Amino acid sequence: MPVYRVTIEYDGSKFSGWQTQLRQRTVQGVLVETLRQELEDSRLTLQGAGRTDAGVHALAQVASLRCARTFSIDRVMDHLSRSLPSDLAVLDIRPAADSFHARHDAVARCYRYQLIRRRSAFGKRSTWWFRDNLDVERMRSAAARFVGRHDFAAFARSGHTAPSTVVVVEDCRLWEFGELVLIRILASHFLWGQVRRMVGALVAVGCGAADPEDVPGWLAGSVSPPEQAAPASGLFLEAVFYNGEPRDLPPPAPVGVPLQPRLIGPSADSRRPADPPARGRKTHGRRRRNDG
């Protein structure tokens, strides 16, 4: 059976994850149905490099496609561009070795996470709005302690069934773009729920609920890490790497939320109209408006 390597981009907000599930809208399910109709091949299979959870996005998910016969890549790409829903796109299809398997052959994966420290009209689907102050330097210090070969059992979701919980984290770092904080983690592989638990722990460090020096204890299992996992909305599968490929990653930049422009003109306080004078009674304070 011919084998193809497929690179896929999706907004996971309205998907119940990657993997096909009965009566659920999933990325794998939508792609397989569309490809089977186009190729008239009811037995084709599509295996993803990462089984992203509900709400998690992908900038470059990789899948191995096995089908009954070769096909015109240009024709199929044109069909997919017209047929797929707006939150799912196939970026590339190319022939692969007969033995290629997107998940088993991957030697490294990269995830990014986006935190935002202000309310954004565009950020609900692609960021975690964290209202409290965050000390990014403390978070950087904690992130550096995750790098290396460690047992991440304490960061795996309950029910994880991997034969080993040892993961090699090659890089874990943070960038600031105004009110947005981007976290990128590159590792050999990830346990179920690991990235979101790691981000939750970094946020706990950033807001002072934990210390960077706690990380070794979490990894050793002597101290339990913070229980809060980061929401799925801010998580992106950024890249998947295979033997012989360079570990090239794009420069870090926000996805799905614009950078806040520099405000020009009077400050917000100077633009706010003065309070009208009280009439007939004293006011003992203004009730705060709830912006949600």
Record keyword descriptors for this entry.
disordered C terminus, Alpha-Beta Plaits, 292 residues, 10 strands, ten-stranded mixed β-sheet, alpha+beta
Class inferred from helices and paired strands: alpha+beta
Which CATH class of the largest domain applies here?
Alpha Beta
What is the CATH architecture term of the largest domain?
2-Layer Sandwich
* Gross geometry: globular
What is the residue-averaged pLDDT? 90
Return Rg in Å.
23 Å
Tally the helices: 6
Strand content: 25-35%
How many separate domains make up the residues?
2
Low-confidence stretches: 268-272, 279-292
Say which CATH homologous superfamily of the largest domain is assigned. Answer: Pseudouridine synthase I, catalytic domain, C-terminal subdomain
User: What's the helical proportion of residues?
Assistant: 10-25%
- Write the element-wise H/E pattern from the N-terminal end onward: EHEEHEEEHEEEHHEH
C-alpha termini separation: 54 Å
User: Would you count the extended β strands for me?
Assistant: 10
CATH topology of the largest domain: Alpha-Beta Plaits
Characterization of this structure:
This protein is an alpha+beta fold and 292 residues long. It has two domains: 3-95, 2-Layer Sandwich (Alpha-Beta Plaits); 106-242, Alpha-Beta Plaits. 20% of the residues lie in helices and 26% in strands. It contains six helices and ten strands; from the N terminus they run E-H-E-E-H-E-E-E-H-E-E-E-H-H-E-H. It has helices spanning 27-39, 73-83, 136-146, 194-206, 215-220, 268-271, and strands spanning 3-10, 45-48, 57-66, 88-95, 106-116, 128-129, 148-151, 166-177, 180-187, 235-242. Strands 1, 2, 3, 4, 5, 6, 7, 8, 9 and 10 form a ten-stranded mixed sheet that branches. Strand 8 (166-177) and strand 9 form a beta hairpin. Helix 1 (27-39) packs across helix 2 (73-83) and helix 3 (136-146) runs antiparallel to helix 4. The longest helix has 13 residues, at 27-39. The N and C termini lie far apart (54 Å). The model is unreliable at 268-272 and 279-292 (pLDDT under 50).
